[in-house]
Every structure is written in C-alpha cells, then in structure tokens.
Amino acid sequence: MLLYDSQVSGNCYKVRLLLAQLGLDCERREIDVVDRSGRSELLGEINPALRVPTLVLDDGRALAESNAILWFLSLGTRYLPDESFERAKALQWMFFEQYSHEPNIAVLRYWLSIAAAAPPEPVVEARRRAGYEALDAMERELATREFLVAGRYTIADIALYAYTHVAEEGGFDLSRYPAIGRWLDRVAAQPGHKPITA
User: Fold this and answer.
1) Quick one: pLDDT at residue 147?
2) CATH 3.40.30.10: which residues of the chain?
3) In the chain, which end has fewer C-beta atoms inside a 10 angstrom radius, N or C?
C-alpha cells in the first residue's frame, strides 16, 4: 500500500495510527499541506479532491477521506464494533468529528501553528467557540465511559484523538476537560500507539 501523507495532518495521522496498530506496512509519500502546487499532477487521477490522506491499495485502487479509510481498514478487526447499532454509533462520532470538531479545532491549529497566517480575530474567535462546543460534547460523553463506543477502543476514538490530542496547538485549553484528559491517556496507552510525529 501507498499512503499520500502529511506528517502534521491529524487526518493523515489517524490512518498512520490504525495502520501501526494493525501491524500493516505502508509506504508513505509526504505531501506539503501548505504548498498545494503540483497536487493535480500528483493526486488528480486518484483523488478528485486533491487531498491527503489518500491510500492506494496494492491492486491500484485508491481511497480518500480519512474516516472512510479508517472504516475500510478496520473491517473485520477489533477496531470496528460487530453489532450494527454500535457500528452506527462509531459512524455518529466520526461524522461529528468531521462536521463539528475538525473544521474548528484542526483549522485553528493549522492557522496558528502550521500556516502561521490566521484570519481576522472575529473569524478565529468563532472557530474557537465552535471548537469548545465540540470539546464540551466529548467531555459530557467521556464523563460516563472510558471510550466513545462499545465500551472499548475503536476507530471512533482514533478519529477524535487525532486532533484532540494536539488541540492546544490551536489555542484550546484542555485542562478544562478532565474526562477528555483521562481518555487521551487511555488512547495513548493502547498497544501499537505511535505519536503524530512518528
């Protein structure tokens, strides 16, 4: 397999983390997330959105979108619940991650720590408020359970861990969230865990 990847991207990190935990070898090709020139030539034939991560299977088929890749790789493994309702709950949290969490927490991290080109403060503040709302929702859920779905570590946790554990790089104060803090420790303690920098 070949992963079109970015070291700093949480979306790419999700895929690298699951691959590591599954013990799957994968060649990585680093793509710059700031300089997007050359994306059409590199990804145009395999991913019309021209984004990373994009995973190319050994048979040449390509799959994009981090959570779709997580779903595909987790089929038949312990990282995806067996029961249909619990599978739907995993999808619920993965959709939440892409709709409510990533557009705010990841975008602020990108603006403030990676691109170093933040928009006007009212725009930043709106993203910050929405990011804290997403963290509030996670805190409420994790106050009553160790993991998000099925009473165990799943791809729902991987999806939300990726940008939550680096949220402080976007100016978010995680000390306000004790349940999230304990959950982050539990995720980091899972077998095969690799840091985002690996």
Assistant:
1) 98
2) 2-74
3) C
From 197, 160, 165, select the one nearest 184 (Cα to Cα): 165
pLDDT tens digits along 86-96: 999 999 999 99
Looking at residue 47, its amino acid is: N
Look up tokens 């070291």; give the residue: 7
Phi, psi dihedral angles at 54 (to 5 degrees): -135, 125
Q: Name the β-bridge partners of 28.
A: 3
**Cβ neighbours of residue 29 closer than 8 Å, sequence gap 6 or more:** 2, 3, 4, 5
**How is residue 38 written in tokens?**
């050359």
Question: Any idea which fold 2-74 has?
Answer: Glutaredoxin (3.40.30)
Two tokens at 197? 């920098």
Q: Can you tell me which residue has the tokens 């004790």?
A: 178
Range(s) of the chain covered by CATH 1.20.1050.10: 84-188
Burial of residue 102, with CB atoms counted within 10 A of its CB: 0-12 exposed, 13-18 middle, 19 or more buried: buried
State mean pLDDT over 114-124. 90
Could you read off the pLDDT of 152-184 as tens digits, one per residue? 999 999 999 999 999 999 999 999 999 999 999
Buried b (16+ CB within 10 A) or exposed e, 179-197: bbeebbeebeeeeeeeebe
117 pLDDT above the threshold of 90: no
Residue 104 banded pLDDT, cuts 50, 70, 90: very high
**Residue 131: per-residue pLDDT:** 98
